[in-house]
Amino acid sequence: MITWEALEAQCRQCQSCPLCETRRNVVFGVGDRQADVLFIGEGPGEQEDRRGEPFVGPAGQLLDLMLSVIDLDRSRVYIANIVKCRPPKNRDPLNLEQDACIGYLRAQTALIRPKIIVCLGRIAAMRIIDPKFRITRQHGEWFERAGVQMMAIYHPSALLRDPSKRPETFVDLKSLQEKIRVLCPHILVRDF
Ligand code: URA
To answer: pTM above 0.85?
Structure first.
């Protein structure tokens, strides 16, 4: 299996799709490379592109808050995106861009071997859980794929645009916390 170092080096030099022409930085991923929980977003935004780290802009601040609500911390999980380079004007990543990039996420997932995968938003859920995934109907629902527990919650950007979705997301987060208590309680910052 490829090493983290080789994978990261390959990803940083990637020219497999046109996003490489407009990126400032490749946003590879951040967190514990042996994490039990993997969060998957859609793609870098402006701040992420500038800093080379996922979820460091406004959506990232909300994600950190969401994690803290269930006694999690970004250092104890791993955070990555479907595409590693910023789509111009934050548009949805095109299928050809996702196809060109998904191998990096697959390799990251194989190295991490998480017990739980949380998709942040529709784009990640459609790619990881089910191409027909309906985020409004299926957020918070648990799926199992090859022994890995998976669910999707609303993307933090969607929660910034529409705060009325926050109560439902709180319920989903509590369900995630419960799953973590069963599968990997040691990652919770306060372990009851
Ligand atoms: N939105 C995402 O999906 N990923 C990031 O890294 C930042 C914002």
So the answer is: yes
Residue 182 CA to ligand 1 center (angstroms) comes to: 28
Spell out the per-residue pLDDT of the chain, length 192, in tens.
999 999 999 999 999 999 999 999 999 999 999 999 999 999 999 999 999 999 999 999 999 999 999 999 999 999 999 999 999 999 999 999 999 999 999 999 999 999 999 999 999 999 999 999 999 999 999 999 999 999 999 999 999 999 999 999 999 999 999 999 999 999 999 755
25 vs 43: CA distance, rounded Å: 12
Secondary structure tally for the chain: helices H, strands E: 9, 6
CB 133 near ligand 1, within 6 Å: no
- Containing 81, the helix (H) or strand (E) segment is strand 78-81
30: β partners: 79
- Choose among 112, 179, 109: nearest CA to 141: 179
Integer angstrom CA distances of residue 2 from 9, 47, 104, 160, 186? 11, 29, 11, 38, 28
How far is ligand 1, taken at its centre, from the CA of residue 192, in Å?
31
